[in-house]
Amino acid sequence: MSHSLEIRGLVKAYTPGNPVLKSIDLDVDGTGLTAIIGPSGTGKSTLIRCINRLVDPTSGTINLCSDGRCVDLAGLKGRALRENRRLIGMVFQEFNLVERLTVMENLLCGRLGYVGAWAAWRRKFPQADVEHAFDLLETVGLGNFANQRADALSGGQRQRVGIARALMQRPKVLLADEPTSSLDPKTSFEIMLLLKEQGRLNNIPVIVNMHDVELARRYADRIIGMSGGQIVYDGAPDGLSDEFLKQIYGGEAWL
Amino acid sequence: MLSTTSAQRVSTAFRVDLWTRVLVLLLFVYVIYAASQIGFSWERFVSGLDNGARFLKRMFPPDLSKMDILWKGISESLQIAVLASVAGILISLPLGLMGARNLMPAWLSWTARTLIAICRSLHPVIMAILFVKAVGFGALAGTLALVVASIGFIGKLFADAIEEISEKQVEAIRATGAPFPNLVLFGVLPQVLSRFIGFSTYQLDSNLRNSTMVGIVGAGGIGGPLFSAFQRFDYSFVFTILVTIIMIIVVGELLANYVKKVFYV
Amino acid sequence: MSDAILAHPDGLLEQRIWQRHTTAQRLVRFAIWLVIVLAIVQSLRTIEVIPEFLYDAPEQMGDMLQRMWPIDWPYYAVGVHAALVETMHIATLGTLLAIVLGIPFGLLVAGNLTRNKALNFIARVVLVSSRSVNSLVWALLFVAVFGPGAVAGTLAIAFRSIGFVGKLVGEAIEEMPRGPIEALQAAGASKASEIRYGYWPQLKPAFWSIVLLRWDINVRESAVLGIVGAGGIGMALDTSLNLFQWGRVAVVLIAIFAIVIVIEVVVTQVRRRVL
């Protein structure tokens, strides 16, 4: 089963006449980790959030394709939107766990797109989901944490739960919006490794938004550099020369 | 509890614990019991709804002919609210200070707090009834009743607020050798003033609401005309009065927010 | 906040003045003080206070207190106890009903949960109206519709409390962090699931605090509803007052006082243990 994302002519203007995203064309497929880098305000976060429609695009198409069948995410509403959102997993910078719920409860929330309304209200999840949750907890190294409250965990642990929750959806694409920006360097490496491995294991593309160029170079299979709302570099990490970095970020002192 | 057998792993996620279940069941039983105790019956309720629909019809259109009575009642309610709030604030300031256990000797704070607690326990309407018996019908009884209610509210919260202040700031002023009044003025008050203003505006709003009903027992304000309108079955006038009360309270809330902003609360 | 005039254009240093507020701010504050003072003066001038009654007051109160002695204790078993229990029922049922009716409005009035501005507005109007009308006035209304008795009292308490519960629930929801909600949306959860899994767990402590507080206040309010015929101990009070049976009035007042204190203690204890 092959999955891919095809973005064509994506434009987003928060205020009319001032587009943050200026006609983005992008294809993502395979199982690699794609890192999007660029200075703050250049639209990296907007781009990622347009994919699962946490932000509504102004124009353009976002096609999520499985085995040749494509759905344009940009135009969906209501039930269709929810059904397609569950195919896209997302990991957040601030982890976004429900603090007062336990780890297991947070994981089960990942299945909310799949259980029926009545079962969701009664909070009864199928045993298969519970088993899947336990398996994922082992995978991310939190096997004994199932009944711990989310707010009792460290940052790195919370992000692992976040990743497990996203994987509970059995997504076709995994998105990550600055997943390591709130973590210390060692934990950042672990999380990036986890994202990369899980992408390969589950046969899905992983798209990560980040501002740490070295981290991107180390873990990404493909780097996309954005500047001023447009893609200015799209290629392998070793091709990312200082010239390109200057173009993306401006200034030289930090290089 | 987790049991990692080869068959199934059990999760306790979202499980409702036993105590909560029991509590919910008890509550359910209580509701049925209490409803029967107070004479609730489905037929009566349904006929009441029917009655209610007829009632609503009689409220429209609102009676706009008795504006002078309305105005007199409303302005009296406003006067009661304003005077009661001012008097209540003026009395609560020293009384609350006296009730602060970290500033005052125990006998004084205990006495002050008991006084405040007594003021708090009795409902404004009950106080209004008692004051009517004591000082006669009219706005004086209403004002006195609300003064008592204000003291009970502002006094307690003010005393609590003073007890929560940072000791260090008070210590610093004490170390300069300042006399007690200055200590209070510069060490204590700056920390609690904004909260005091917050309580006072809340109580002004509360007094505004209460002043509209003390008249029901003869203590002045719009409550009087409201009650007599009910007794005359003059529901369209009732509606006029209610809408006016709601509007006044909304305006009062907006004004209070504005005043708070200006005084940096 | 401070206004320091440092240097004169000519190079001479003017005296530095420390003012707590700028001139404009001082004018506004003064204007407000003026309005307040005018309101007070006007109220004092026009309020109908008959001086004789005012001088009489202490004597009258003393007289009233005297008549309350001896306290008619036996009356408690006969007239007061059942009414007190009924008062508790009114308060509790009324509070429960208010929760059931108030939560939906609380959800509707929260701008981050319900995006529809029209719904926000309607919910706000309902909640404000509920809060602005006293429980006593609601009681008058319901006595007129459902007849005298505790049913009218329960509905009065409920309808007054809807505004309280709804407003505070709405505010609690608006203060919640957006993040976890976004995560649930991104996973494809429905609105109902958003509420059940995202908002409710975080809302719980504040919610129970609000409910306990309102129950406490409702016990006090239920005690007086009987004055307009809506059941509870207020009716016993009303009857004894009308018949000038001051000994009984005393018993009723003490009973009301006692139950209010008991409830306060209960609520404080529950607060400490559970919240």
**Can you give the helix content of chain B as a percent range?**
over 70%
User: Could you tell me the mean pLDDT of chain B?
Assistant: 86
The rough form of chain A would be described as globular
> Looking at CATH, which topology of the largest domain in chain B would you report?
MetI-like fold
How many strand segments of chain A? Answer: 10
* Annotation field: number of helices of chain A: 9
Brief summary:
Chain A is of the alpha/beta class and 255 residues long. Chain A contains nine helices and ten strands. In chain A, 35% of the residues lie in helices and 26% in strands.
Please tell me about this protein's structure:
The complex is a heterotrimer of chains A (255), B (265) and C (275). By secondary structure, chain A is an alpha/beta fold. Chain A has helices spanning 44-51, 78-85, 103-109, 117-122, 127-139, 155-168, 185-202, 213-219, 242-249; strands at 3-15, 18-29, 33-37, 59-66, 69-72, 88-91, 173-177, 206-209, 222-227, 230-235. In chain A, strand 7, helix 7 (185-202) and strand 8 form a beta-alpha-beta unit. In chain A, helix 3 (103-109) packs parallel to helix 6, helix 5 (127-139) packs across helix 6 and helix 6 (155-168) packs parallel to helix 7 (185-202). The mean pLDDT of chain A is 91. Chain B is mainly alpha-helical. In chain B, 76% of the residues lie in helices and 0% in strands. The model of chain B has no long low-confidence stretch (mean pLDDT 86). Chain C has helices at 23-46, 51-67, 75-109, 117-132, 135-146, 150-174, 179-186, 191-225, 233-242, 246-274. The two termini of chain C are 40 Å apart. Chains in contact: A-B, A-C, B-C. At the B-C interface, helix 1, helix 2, helix 3, helix 5 and helix 6 of B face helix 1, helix 2, helix 3, helix 4 and helix 5 of C.
Compile the SSE list and pairings.
The complex is a heterotrimer of chains A (255), B (265) and C (275).
Chain A: E1 3-15, E2 18-29, E3 33-37, H1 44-51, E4 59-66, E5 69-72, H2 78-85, E6 88-91, H3 103-109, H4 117-122, H5 127-139, H6 155-168, E7 173-177, H7 185-202, E8 206-209, H8 213-219, E9 222-227, E10 230-235, H9 242-249
Parallel strand pairs in A: 3-8, 3-9, 6-7, 7-8
Antiparallel strand pairs in A: 1-2, 1-4, 4-5, 9-10
Helix pairs in contact in A: 3-6, 5-6, 6-7
Chain B: H1 18-37, H2 42-59, H3 67-98, H4 106-121, H5 124-135, H6 139-163, H7 167-175, H8 180-211, H9 223-231, H10 235-262
Helix pairs in contact in B: 3-4, 3-6, 3-8, 4-6, 5-6, 6-8, 7-8, 8-10
Chain C: H1 23-46, H2 51-67, H3 75-109, H4 117-132, H5 135-146, H6 150-174, H7 179-186, H8 191-225, H9 233-242, H10 246-274
